[in-house]
Amino acid sequence: MTRAELVEIARMYYEKNMTQQEIADKINLSRMGISRAISRCHLEGIIEIKIKYENSYTDLEKEITAKYGNLKTIVVPYDSDKEIADKFLREGAVRVLQKYIKNNQYVGIGWGSTLSTLHKIIPSKCETIGTTFVPLLGGYGNTDYSINSNNIASNIGKAFKGNNLMLHAPAIIENENLKHTLLADKYIKEVFSCYEKLDVAIIGIGNPSIKDASIYDSGYFSKHDIYELTNSKIVCDIVSCIYLNNHGQEQSLELLDRTIGISSKSFKKIPVRIAVSGGINKHVANKLALESQSINVLVTDEKTAQFLIK
After folding, report:
1. Residue 85 contacts residue 96 (beta carbons within 8 Å)
2. Where's the HTH cro/C1-type domain (predicted)?
3. Which CATH architecture has domain 3-43?
4. Considering only Cβ atoms within 10 Å of each terminal Cβ, which end of the chain, N or C, has fewer?
């Protein structure tokens, strides 16, 4: 059966609401043959089924807002399959970006696996004029480039047909003196000057205490840095400029003195601070991020939302 024939069967079944038997009678095939053809349409991508879950979790979202105050929450379905769960989170993130990103803005972009493929599902109609996408953290060298803030800012910038800047510096360097030298570079200065102009930021939330945390794949953190995070009982990493311990207290870590990226003070001034974060391992991190008021828009899954209102 040709693709054109499969498409015609799919149209009769889904657009004209014909039964399989009616289609079989019309084109002189068995009903079983029609059933198999429809299955092939699914396998070959001719038919795509999209479940519209928007506005399905309104009550949960309202409860979170009532508990944590000035917060906008977007809840998406939970799935035990991480790949599917991340897909739901990214779809929710795109909805939020479409709402908040406007022309002539400065948009800060975080790092991490959740944001790394976000650009692939941003609709082509999402075009901006004069909007600049800015990496919130350096990152080159021995790193996974796909989760690098520069790479993500570039990809999202292209998806929105905007501009993007590059922060050509490591995320965390060996000593504070070298940091001051790098900050004198005119191109790095340009990025840092944009941190005070940001209208929107989108980030992931990390939990350094879990074994599969992105910090272990990023290449940003040395063994000494990871020891400091562990020793300080850090369970919430907000774009590697805000570290919260298991009591929700922000910690002034030594590694912050060697980090090249936005500061905690500058991040908290951004009017719209979107976090995209879900999964059981992130429950505590998300709760602490909300309680600290470090973010004011959260895209998360149903199970995390239920945990947040306990």
Report:
1. no
2. 15-36
3. Orthogonal Bundle (1.10)
4. C
